[in-house]
Amino acid sequence: MNELTIAIIFYIFAAVTVVSAAVVVFSKNVIYSAFSLLFTFFGVAALYVFLSADFIAVTQIVVYVGGILVLLLFGVMFTNTIMSTDLKADVLHFIPGVVLTVLLIVGMLYAFYTTGDWMPGHIQLSGSVVERIGIETMSRYMLPFEMASILLLVALIGAAYLARYDKANKKEH
Amino acid sequence: MEMFTAIGLNHFLTISTMLFALGMFAVMTRKNAIVILMGVELILNAANINFLAFSKYNGGMEGVMISLFVIVLAAAEAAVALAIVINIFKTFKTVDVSSVDTMKE
Questions:
Q1: Checking phi first, is residue A14 left (phi over 0); if not, alpha (psi -120 to 50) or beta?
Q2: Which of A70, B10, B30, B44 gets the highest tally of CB atoms within 10 A of its CB?
Q3: B2-92 — its CATH code?
């Protein structure tokens, strides 16, 4: 593939990501937001492939689309009662939000494009990164890796405790 | 034209800025707690893109590893946050964060 083809594919995925993220944020219907988040996650995974992080892209699809998005959809369907559908225009502090968002975009883009003249390093990541992830996980990142497993266990127990059904009082607690 | 066809670091930084700003906007303005959680996920994805972009153009593995841990943390965060939101819904019968203003029923 020549450079132009790669650039066109990149822009397509970038547009998918940003447009569907905008739908997530601006849609009035929470269900539309949740399904639009699907396309955002897939677009971001495609961008990860452009950054030669193929393993992270697959992890993104498995964890975000297969786990977090399903969880969010369950949350939406649990909490979206028919009563609350008339509460559609649920936006708070709209003008300050717009002002702060625009300031944020302008400030960050200014910093990225003017302050730092980012020099690409002599070595860049290329090809598959899976093997190097395995080596790093078992050497330099051993302790964070084990801590992540404990954290996941704690989060699992905590979430199950928080959302449990209280048998003793015969009510949902 | 060169600036648009040669995909470089700044392209990825621009996209991550847009994602971050959109997520920030959702967190600041939306009332529905679930949409606020979606905004947090967008912010985490933007941070991940930055990590991986700098890692790619630096040649190091630090960004890749940290983005992996960010995904793990995002999964844990989503599970606990959803449990809290469902508890809020059971107590207050709404997930409107502007009307949840007491710590007991």
A1: alpha
A2: B30
A3: 1.10.287.3510
Report residue A86 as tokens.
């008339």
Of A3, A25, A59, the CB nearest to B71: A59
Query: A49 and chain B: CB distance < 8 Å anywhere?
Result: no
Choose the closest CB to A3 out of B5, B23, B78: B5
pLDDT confidence of residue B99? 81
pTM: 0.88
CB contact under 8 A, A91 and B5: no
Closest CA of chain B from A30, distance in Å: 7
Amino acid in position B41: E
CB atoms A34 and B9 under 8 Å: no
Length of chain A: 173
Assign A167 a pLDDT band (cuts: 50, 70, 90). low
CATH fold of A1-82, please?
A: Four Helix Bundle (Hemerythrin (Met), subunit A) (1.20.120)
- Where do the DSSP E strands lie in A80-153? none
User: Is A171 strand, coil or helix?
Assistant: strand
